[in-house]
């Protein structure tokens, strides 16, 4: 046999034996096992399903595909506000604290053993200081003097009942304080919100939307304050929280056309209520006041305006009343919203503003929280004043 061929054969066999031993040697003790396919990020077919890298994410974003950022917060859910029923009662303690001086002074004076002329003058001054108004204060004092004379001796409970009945009579127990938000045959109810900037007008429009949504109504908001882009942004924030769409246009657009479009959207959506937020018109600017009247006239070409709510800051006193008179001349106001009522001891403004304008207070703001706007309840209001005096 050729020894050369024999040597080659032996060499090849040796290589095969060594190589096979290497390939089939057992796993080293302590080495971690291979993870299952699903833990390695492989699907049933062995396809890798690892998360996309940043470059892939950028491409997907450029293509309009939503890519969740690591740790990004989830989209905010639509809130469900509490219903309007009983709101003022729930906020009564806050109102009582603000009216503590007013109620305490009146009850203290009326409970005195002897009510002479000086005491009655002090009672009248207390009422005027609380923004009740000179005419209303004089009438309240006259009525109380008559009742005290008839009653003779007075227990604390009798004094409280006397004052309660008189304040209720001045505020008015038979006025329609309903905010007319029910849809009708002509389409959704339309509520215009007017007032000077700084009174909480746009905030009131947003809070009113929350009140209505809490009562199960559907709402469309119209951002007709086109002089301030921030107002439309603010209204959009309020609307997004409760799922109420907002109709808005670029800054400087015609407010009347925005209001008209909002009403049209409300009709198309079969909404219950359309709330139109108007510009915070300076009461000294005649042209702007005329434009406010134009917004109302344009909307009325489409449907009726069911309520025009004038927002007043309760802390502004006589200046707020001057504003109210001018607005009443420009547009037919049907109701008052008193904001920041928890921030003043002058709760008598409710009596005075109603007397001046001949329209009822329908809503009151009692704080900065989203649900601090409440339907005005005359009994709860008077009880809060007297509670503050006890």
TrEMBL record:
Positions of the UniProt region annotated as Disordered: 27-83
Enzyme Commission number(s) of this protein: 3.6.5.4
Gene3D superfamilies with a match to the protein in the record: P-loop containing nucleotide triphosphate hydrolases, Signal recognition particle SRP54, nucleotide-binding domain
Subunit: Part of the signal recognition particle protein translocation system, which is composed of SRP and FtsY.
InterPro entries: AAA+_ATPase, P-loop_NTPase, Signal_recog_particl_SRP54_hlx, SR_rcpt_FtsY, SRP/SRP_N, SRP54_GTPase_dom, SRP54_N_sf
Record's protein name: Signal recognition particle receptor FtsY
GO biological process, one term: cell division
Membrane topology: Peripheral membrane protein
SMART domains the record matches: AAA, SRP54, SRP54_N
Location within or outside the cell: Cell membrane; Cytoplasm
A single MF term (Gene Ontology): GTP binding
Transmembrane segments: 6-24
Low complexity composition-biased segments: 63-79
Residue positions binding GTP: 195-202, 277-281, 339-342
Sequence similarity: Belongs to the GTP-binding SRP family. FtsY subfamily.
Enzyme class: hydrolase
Domain SRP54-type proteins GTP-binding span(s) in chain numbering: 360-373
Catalytic function, reaction form: GTP + H2O = GDP + phosphate + H(+)
Domain of life: Bacteria
Keywords: Cell cycle, Cell division, Cell membrane, Cytoplasm, GTP-binding, Hydrolase, Membrane, Nucleotide-binding, Receptor, Transmembrane, Transmembrane helix
Keyword field contains Cell cycle: yes
Pfam families listed in its UniProt record: SRP54, SRP54_N
Main localization (coarse): membrane
GO cellular component: cytoplasm; plasma membrane
Function in brief: Involved in targeting and insertion of nascent membrane proteins into the cytoplasmic membrane. Acts as a receptor for the complex formed by the signal recognition particle (SRP) and the ribosome-nascent chain (RNC).
